[in-house]
Specification:
With 114 residues, this protein is α+β, with helices and mostly antiparallel strands. The protein contains 1 helix and 5 strands, in the order βαββββ. The protein has a single domain, classed as Hotdog Thioesterase (Thiol Ester Dehydrase, Chain A). The protein has a 5-stranded antiparallel sheet, covered by helices on one side.
Length: 114
């Protein structure tokens, strides 16, 4: 699955670059949409992201490509590799990448099979 985000002034920190927390929210949302689209019968919650490392600053007006690909499926969980690139300036060099893992739960929060 792939989506895009436009970095706007409201997404910037006090140094004029993309706030890291905003990017993490976009990554989590994109991966959740990928998981929920692939397994529509499941209710997923995020249980973790692995390495969090921002490779360089991202400024106002940047168009980000967020690409999600499933890398693992367990009995109750799925993991997606997420890669973020700058569409115009460095389309092949990731500015951020991580693995996001979700667990499927029922209405009571108990793990259920994927």
């Amino acid at each position: 699955m792939e989506t895009h985000r436009l970095v706007l002034p409201g997404d910037l920190n006090h140094y004029g670059s993309l706030f890291g927390g905003r990017l993490l929210a976009w990554v989590d949302e994109a991966a959740w949409i990928a998981a929920s689209s692939e397994f529509p019968h499941c209710q997923f919650v995020t249980i973790g992201m692995d390495r969090i490392e921002f490779r360089h600053a991202v400024g106002d007006g940047t168009i980000l490509r967020i690409h999600c690909e499933r890398t693992k499926r367990g009995r109750t969980s799925v993991t997606y590799k997420v890669e973020v690139t700058d569409v115009k300036n460095a389309p092949t060099v990731p500015i951020f990448q991580t693995n996001v893992t979700f667990v499927s739960v029922n209405d009571q929060g108990v793990k259920t099979e994927v």
